[in-house]
Amino acid sequence: MDSNSKGIKVAEAAACFIEGISAEERESFQQTISHFARWFGKDKVFCELMPPEIANYADRLAISDAEYTKKLEVVKFFLAYAKKEGFIKTNLSTHLKSKKCKVKNNNNNFKKDAPQKVSLTSDGYEKIKTELEELKKQRPQAIEEVSKAAADKDFRENAPLDAARERLSHLEGQIIELQELLKKAEIIDECTKDTDRAGIGDCVVLTDLSNMEKLEYTLVSTREYDPSKGKISGSSPLGKAIVGKCASDNIEVMVPAGKLCYKIEKIEHVHKAKSKK
């Protein structure tokens, strides 16, 4: 294991591993490998992982995941790869012991552990998918930059290597974040929505009761917030006051300058029904 391999981080190794396997394996392995990287932290240096930490990971996975045996096999494959590439000195996969364990699955636990849904408009969902694909296209180049910088061994401190690793780590973090967001996404569906009340994806026309000025806003998720285009977050003070209200309702919003009063004139359901693909 050379001096450069000693400093490689878990997220960087995970990216190299994913890039080097087949498309079919990538589809099957990526979620498990991403979970492993998040568990230990994207900035964790791979060679600093200790056998007890690996054993604890297996134990915790057994408690929380019904398919943990299958996932352990994927992690073993990854750890064997890490040993072969010199990222770690020993094959840590020997410390992944499969255990027979019943996963608790009562209603209370399910509700407690279920991921929180994130409401998105169809356009917002598609934009995130596009952003994710663009980031994935940058991955091969980022990995290549790390490899090229690591090839230069005639130095004590390799600033280009540190910069390349930092870029790859940041890129992987963005990819993981968007993948998790898409998993939690709940696309607004007009067909299942109470059309009398305002919600995410709706265009709302208001009258400012202080000066009778007409205002028009589109309610969106926090991620889609763009005041320059009249898009306000449903979790903003004004958004919260509007969500769930009907046309002709009066609303009040407290701001540092005092109380603002509006009347909801019209609610237009401009989004299109669409399910996740």
Short description:
The protein has helices at residues 3-6, 10-20, 23-40, 51-64, 68-85, 107-113, 122-150, 159-184, 237-242; strands spanning 118-120, 185-187, 202-208, 213-220, 231-233, 250-255, 258-269. With 277 residues, the chain is α/β, with parallel strands linked by helices.
Q: Which features characterize this protein?
A:
alpha/beta; two-stranded parallel sheet; Chitinase A, domain 3; Helix Hairpins; 277 residues; 7 strands; disordered C terminus; 2 domains
Structure in words:
Helix 7 runs antiparallel to helix 8 (159-184). The longest helix has 29 residues, at 122-150. A hairpin with a 2-residue loop joins strand 6 and strand 7 (258-269). The chain is elongated. The strands form 2 sheets. Strands 5-4-3-7-6 form a 5-stranded mixed beta sheet. The chain has a two-stranded parallel sheet with strand order 1-2. It has helices at 3-6, 10-20, 23-40, 51-64, 68-85, 107-113, 122-150, 159-184, 237-242, and strands spanning 118-120, 185-187, 202-208, 213-220, 231-233, 250-255, 258-269. It is of the alpha/beta class and 277 residues long. The two termini are 43 Å apart. The chain is 48% helix and 15% strand. It has 2 domains: 3-187, Helix Hairpins (Orthogonal Bundle), CATH 1.10.287.180; 190-269, Roll (Chitinase A, domain 3).
